Amino acid sequence: MAISMQRNRRLYAVAAILVVGIGLFWRSGVLPLPAFLVKYGGDSLWALVVFLGFGFVFPRTSTVRIGLLAIGFAWSVEFLQLYHAGWIDGIRATRLGRLILGNTFNSPDLLAYTVGIAVGAWGERALR
User: Fold this and answer.
1) How do residues 59-82 score in pLDDT, each as one tens digit?
2) In this model, does residue 2 exceed pLDDT 70?
3) What confidence tens digit (pLDDT) does each residue in 7-22 have?
4) Nearest to 109 by CA among 69, 82, 84
5) What is the mean pLDDT of the chain?
6) What pLDDT, on the 0 to 100 scale, is given for residue 65?
7) Helix/strand/coil (H, E, C) string of the chain?
8) Cβ atoms of 43 and 116 closer than 8 Å
């Protein structure tokens, strides 16, 4: 049975902002990381922000439910990349749109998202 908890929204907001900063730095090219880590580590960090965002929006929901919401959202965004219409490709053409929606479906991203969300769930349980 999933146990509900009360999350500190301020903490989740700060954590999400920090992870976004880390993710942008991670992908900036400043760090001498292998391409594999740049790509999939960045995807994992993106999914961690999704987890933190759902934790912020639903502060009393169980970790398991937050994880399921986050994985559903992240995977939906990835599968949405198979859809190409002028309006959504226009959004993807912007930097922010590309960061949020991506532009090319890549099935290994699904595993990277799962890892990022699992790290968030593990961290939440460890801190509790």
Assistant:
1) 999 999 999 999 999 999 999 999
2) no
3) 999 999 999 999 999 9
4) 82
5) 94
6) 97
7) CCCCCCCCHHHHHHHHHHHHHHHHHHCCCCCCCCHHHHHHHHHHHHHHHHHHHHHHHCCCCCHHHHHHHHHHHHHHHHHHCCCCCHHHHHHHCCHHHHHHHCCCCCCHHHHHHHHHHHHHHHHHHHHC
8) yes
